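TOKENISE THE FOLD
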Amino acid sequence: MSPTIAIIGRPNVGKSSLFNRLVGRRIAIVDDTPGVTRDRKEAEARIAGRNVRLLDTAGLEEATPETIAGRMRASSEAAVRESDLVLFVIDARSGLTPADRAFADWLRRQPVPVVLVANKTEGRLGGYAAMEAYELGLGDPIAVSAEHGDGMGELHDAVREYLPDEDEEKSRDRADRPLRLAIIGRPNAGKSTLLNRLLGEERMITGPEPGLTRDSVAVEWTDATGGKVRLVDTAGLRKKARIEQALEKMSAAASIAALKECEVAILVVDALLGMEEQELRLARLAEREGRAVVIALNKWDAVEDREATRRRLEDTLMTSLTQLRGIPVVPLSAQTGRGADRLMPAVREAYALWNRRIGTGELNRWFETMLARHPTPLVEGRRIKLRYATMPKARPPTIVVFGTRAETLPEDYRRYLVNGFREAFGMSGVPIRLQLRGTSNPYADEE
């Protein structure tokens, strides 16, 4: 039987939008009016590589049992009791309310695990707004925008921690699980040919006609290092203006879904065409979802001026993909196999960096060096005082910086910290999350 996941929260925090986003189609009615959802809705969804039963519940409100709101609350509480996991949704834009805190207290007393979801975090300050949710005592908040689809990959990762893989027992160690790898890129870039090359067999139909692969195809295998891999070859993603036929819309959706479920993405780039907006859009989506990325520069054997081709690619990456600075590039020919043996080692290295956590002591020694090298700027005539940093999670590496008025830190100083972290700890090509929390260190010396 599929695991059951309930989405709960007070009215109008975006539960139904999140439900529709996870299911992949519009089932629940969405409106700005609170209380639109009164009855529980359920649907089958694919989350974190698992088929699950997803429940959309009515809004939690403080009310007497005989009222409509009271009956809605009772229905939501019943959904929690029958669930294997709860997604507790708050509205990060409007901040925590007494109702949020009351329901968080109730959830902490329930036997079901909870993933805290901070919705409506689109925009530059969205990540900071989510930090307030730490006060609820439900662990790390997952910052998402159900409306825009931001953060769905990290939500899948959080859910995955509580659900067993379909073909594995709950007790299996993470090290034994296959690395989840997606191959993405434009149509006819050579994705299926590359998959066949990695597998050593003609598993996928290939040819010069673009769009031969219509759906995502999952393949499990063991690479030369002896590591298990679950590899998904996706349908090519075209420019939005060209996605007209229903079948092609389904192909594009399958590509995006595979990217959300993977841990590392191989972005296949046709070396003869170079890295254009389509490839940059896919790389940015992978970064937005917190995925490690490796570029497979395919058809390298057909390139005449290799130095100029490399230089153009490096310039494009430097100017248009700074958030993945140092992304590994592996020139190869999927057709002949030349250079393909270097691809999986690069993938494994990117995966290891993506999983890496830095200890608090080492992290703060680096942090103090960065502050000494370039003190924080003045904002409105007052200096921002950053006190300490922690790394609460990896996958991707996430740094939380605490300090007085930390949330007002200018964007250029944020980039300075991220780039310094990437350089100091060798995190090339890995998405880095920087979150700022405006509070003081309770262990700092009194001034």
